[in-house]
Amino acid sequence: MGLSYQQALEFLFPRTTSIKFGLETTRALLATVGNPQDVYPTIHIGGTNGKGSVSTLVASALRAAGFRVGLYTSPHLVSFRERIQVDGAPISESAVAAWTGQLAPEIEARRGTFFEATTVIALADFAARGVDIGVVEVGLGGRLDSTNVLTPLVSGVTKIELDHMKYLGDSLEEIAREKAGIAKPGVPFVIGETRPGLVNVMRLEAGAAARRLGGTADVRVLPAEYLWRGPLGLQGAFQRRNAAVAHGILMALPPAYRPAQDAIASGFGAARIPGRFDRRGKWLFDVAHNPDGMLALTQAIARADLPRPIHALVSILGDKAWPDMLVRLDAAVDRGVLTVAPTAMGRGWDLGWLDAWLREADRPPARAPWTLTPDFRQAIREAEAEAGTVLVTGSFHTVGDVMAELGMEP
Fold it and tell me: So what's the pLDDT on residue 359?
């Protein structure tokens, strides 16, 4: 099926409305393009928060060591092509079109989802562009996530928090079990979580996951007190722990792929991630999209010397714990403007509920004034007016849509 880039996106994006767990469809799609995941080694990284940062840091260190590195992350901010990069260069429009066209009949026959298709496109593109190694971020969960078709050199899990409870479970322990399902027999499994109870849950689940595949687990727990003290291009104190997890993953690699310490320091110092405490003039972008991410953001704001007043422009997906997120954010800003990101595509918060919550007498008292402005462009103008800093947060959609509206590159 010959497609243009735009036609490929129009084919893929309607499939974002379905989430399907299991590996059968992904494996079938990979077979259609010759099982590219078997051509090069990979590193597999999951967790609730921090997995995108850890993946980027690992990829940056490997590049500094001289490897040609594929990086697959999600979601994107402005362009679909951001998700699939080789040595920092995004997948080409023609490649997206070609891979989608080749896969389309099988995607349709199996009712493949957006993420199943995108994962296969990423793994195929890495092989086509001749990567030495691929760094793959888990999409949702771990055990049944589409990316779990890999048998990597190392797998790792960052921090566990409550998120996507509809799919992963209502407790931290249930979520930890799902995340630990990426463990493979004999493959080092690095745990960045620090709470002993959750560490034990993941240790046990990693062992069970490895036994299901006929082997034993190689679990490596990073010390809770370990923070990366070297050069770091990423802003925010929380990134020191993410860098420590990335360092632990790199040290677990076989010697042939393990970067020297100077390459790790160089790579970590050069790493950049759009939308993570990302300051651009008076604008500050952060994709915090759950309570723990919002707490990390507010702590980073408290340590930063930001021009006041700080005005927050916020849109959060409806299935998130947004009341808790707003209460935490209220303590750090001087004014808040609530809106709906255009690309939330039906997943945005319910404006009726939000308006009612703002009016509730018994909700936690707000320190800053908050207003609800459904019109997105008007909300941007209101947040920017008389602001020393405009903080854009709440979801990847919010950050990406504002960047696109302002004409900024990710």
Answer: 86
Distance CA 284, CA 294 (A): 14
Which domains does the chain possess? 5-270 (3.40.1190.10), 278-406 (3.90.190.20)
pTM, two decimal places: 0.92
Distance linking the first and last C-alpha atoms of the chain: 31
Q: What is the mean pLDDT of the chain?
A: 93
Query: Which residues face 392 on adjacent strands?
Result: 285, 313
Averaged over 181-195, what is the pLDDT?
96
- Encoding tokens for residue 43? 């590193």
From 329, 338, 334, 335, select the one nearest 373 (Cα to Cα): 338
28 Cα distance to chain centroid: 25
The amino acid that residue 347 corresponds to is R
pLDDT tens-place string over residues 69-100: 999 999 999 999 999 999 999 999 999 999 99
Each residue's pLDDT tens digit, 316-347 = 988 888 889 999 999 999 999 999 999 986 77
For 64, phi then psi, to 5°, come to: -65, -25
Chain centroid to CA 198: 21
